[in-house]
Structure of Phosphocarrier protein HPr:
Amino acid sequence: PVPKERRAFTGSAATADGHAVSLLANIGTAADAAKAAAAGATGSGLFRTEFAFLDRAQAPSEDEQTELYAGVLRAFEGSKVVLRTLDSGSDKPLPFLDPEPEENPALGVRGLRTAFRHEGLLRTQLAAMARAQTLVPGTQAWVMAPMVATVEEAAWFAGLARAAGLATVGVMIETPAAALSAEHVLEHVDFVSLGTNDLAQYTMAADRLSAPLAALNDPWQPAVLRLIEATVNGAGLASARPGAARRTVGVCGEAASDPLLARVLIGLGVDSLSMSPGALAAVAEALAASTLEQCRAAATAALTATGAREARDAASGVL
Ligand code: PEP
Ligand code: MG
């Protein structure tokens, strides 16, 4: 049971038996970064860069982007910020990309796919991120690409990001294909971050914006949990290769902000959780109320359940 009186989040979190968990904030603007830092977040696991440019007729310049990213890095001095490259298309079209109408935008040219046609824009964005890192060396700037489906895409992105001077490069795991290819994806990148909002949408073939399909679009669906497990297993295999550094797995979808599911995710072997800042205190308290062994038992119970409700019930029976 989690106590009702909630103390402010102080920046560190651990299970009852002392297994440390990195809790980070999802942000969309520089103002969000300041608010999240004030709320105790020591870093950001997801900066959605496209949010700053949704109303633009012209692409933002490298200088403007550098200033924006440096401002966000400054808010988290001494920690890390995961900068996500533009996730445009689908529900977030960027006018300056002149998107073509699509029959199925969620299955269309979105996320990293837009960069295949606008490589210059991606190069400019990566250059701005690298310059921001130089301006704020006290914060680690990690960079990641959204909506990756193949190992080849991950390798292509990693090549561009490293050539721009960025040291820590990752991709989001938002498609079942990427989850099932995590071991090979992680031969090219340093970390992955599970976007469970999209992973649920693509696993269950249910539009995340569709109210009638909300029950399908649920990260408690055991099929989604099994893909998270597959991603963690892939990271373990990639980390075990001779000479390889340890590959980390984060979650930055809404699933991380559910205090019960957060413990299941840690039980599955996820390293860090990034969420809206308002959820940090409740998730930290939930973690402190359970041991790692209990989290693992809850994960096993949820993975083998027959449905989303059954998975939630099984996990809460253990925790
Ligand atoms: C996700 O898909 O879970 C995610 C974090 O990215 P976004 O919600 O911005 O698509
Ligand atoms: Mg997403």
About this structure: The mean pLDDT is 95. The first helix runs from residue 30 to 38. The beta strands are 13-14, 20-27, 44-48, 80-84, 140-145, 168-173, 191-194, 248-251, 272-275.
